Amino acid sequence: MRLSPIATALAACLALGASVSARASGENTLTADWHGARTRLHDQGIDLSADYVGEWLHNTHGGRRHATAYADQLHVGAAFDFGKLWGWRGASLHVDITNRNGHQLDARAGLGTLLETHEIYGAGNVTRLTRFYLEQQLWQDRLDIKAGRMDLNADFFPLSCDFENLSFCGSLPGYITPGWYSWPVSQLGGVIRLNPASAWYARVGAFDVNPRNADPSQGLKLSTPGRNTGTLVVGEAGWDTALDAGSHVLPGSWRIGAWRNSAPAPDLLLDVNGQPRVLTGAAALQRGSTQGSYALVKQQLTRNAAGGGLTVFGNLVRADADTDRVDRMVSVGLLYQAPFAARPHDRIGLAWGQNRVSGRVAESARLANAAGMGPVAVPGSESVLELNYSARIVPGLTLMPSVQFVRHPGGDPGAARATVMGLRVAAAF
User: Fold this and answer.
1) Is the pLDDT of residue 5 over 90?
2) What is the tally of structural domains in the chain?
3) What distance in Å separates the CA atoms of residue 197 and residue 260, rounded to the nearest whole number?
4) CATH code of the domain covering residue 209
């Protein structure tokens, strides 16, 4: 299904008009409480949700040409509490379906970036079954078990999407290492989480590695056709902080994790005989597995009179330098909630990140140049800076203008800096 920007605006206006009399319910959605139906369904064990995100981007500098692109996503979700429905305490079913459409600015403008400036674009213009899994909580919720079809975002590297550049949005390892699929692509697997105390946890998950998980033809299928090539195992430990600031606390979260993918992957530099394949043209050496690690932190530092304040975050991802073209991602940023007393729901975002190309790719380029096969650019790192302002227009509807600066797109030291202007509209129904 394709929703044009005009149709989206009309739908939002209609929903807004229907919800004016219901805003007092406190629901942060355009359609509020559905005249009490949403609350009644929740009490019975059924939670329904729907949201829409659309992003316009235009590059004013850099790339091969100036271009404009629009991409969007419509998401519907449902959660069924089996304890309320049938007395099956602690059990629930989660179903999420996404529909994505549109075009990618990076391709249209020829930006040549390592990570997209358009985070909502990706995985094909297709309707997908993103989540369909059972969850069971035991021992007063100290043990949580999930099994079914899911993405990894909810459980591993839980970074929110407060920016338009993909370097600062979602489950970052999934963008640079094979076998790890990020929203909206899903894979069959299971996760076990142990919560010995309310402030910290440990979890481990195992997921099928099947290249066809990302196929547009996968659509609403529960199982993936074809043979699995391996298993992705991910572990994560987390600690939640509550810094004492006198009359209030400042929340924070600290996470570390690691993964191992048992599926073979081609070496970026060597051939089957251990020689540089850029010179020999022979088939690539197959590595028996890949692995990586990550860390992320998010901590509120101040609180203002409007209930907001300054929050800082930082992320580090180290992928497999033998097989992953981008082998390191690092980013830091600031989020300032309620910048004005009269705008308690607005937010300013500023983030900087660097994505590094593996040294094995750079070595291949140097060897090609030395052999007279060039000139080939020797890649290094790509740096990204984004500034945005998220403004809540009415409950359930926000607009976020942004500007991005990409230095050395693709890690090419000779590439011109790219400047990208953006506007995101997000609606929750």
Assistant:
1) no
2) 1
3) 27
4) 2.40.160.180
DSSP string for 351-411: EEEEEEEPHHHHHHHHHHHHTT--------EEEEEEEEEEEEEETTEEEEEEEEEEESGGG
Contact 256, 236 (CB under 8 A): yes
Amino acid identity, position 271: D
**What does the mean pLDDT of the chain come to?**
92
* Coil vs helix vs strand at 48: strand
Contact 230, 264 (CB under 8 A): yes
For residue 365, the one-letter residue type is A
- Tell me the residue range of the domain where 283 lies: 5-428
pLDDT at 248: 86
Residue 297, amino acid: V
Give residue 7's identity as a one-letter amino acid code: A
Torsion angles phi and psi, residue 102, rounded to 5: 115, -165
What are the E-state strand segments in 159-263? 187-197, 200-209, 230-244, 249-261
Residue type, 249: V
In whole angstroms, give the CA distance from residue 316 to residue 164. 19
Residue 295: strand pairing partners: 256, 316
pLDDT tens by residue, 385-410: 999 999 999 999 999 999 999 999 99
Q: How far is CA 388 from the centre of its chain?
A: 17
Residue 277's pLDDT band (boundaries 50, 70, 90)? very high
- pTM of the prediction? 0.90
Residue 298, Cα to own-chain centre: how many angstroms? 16
Please report, for residues 15, 37, 357, the alpha-carbon distance to residue 31 in angstroms, rounded to integers and kept in the order given. 6, 11, 46
Other Cβ atoms closer than 10 A to 342: 7
- pLDDT bin (cut points 50, 70, 90) of residue 247 is confident
- Sign for the pseudo-dihedral over CA of 373, 375, 376, 378: positive
Token look-up 């081609």 returns 266
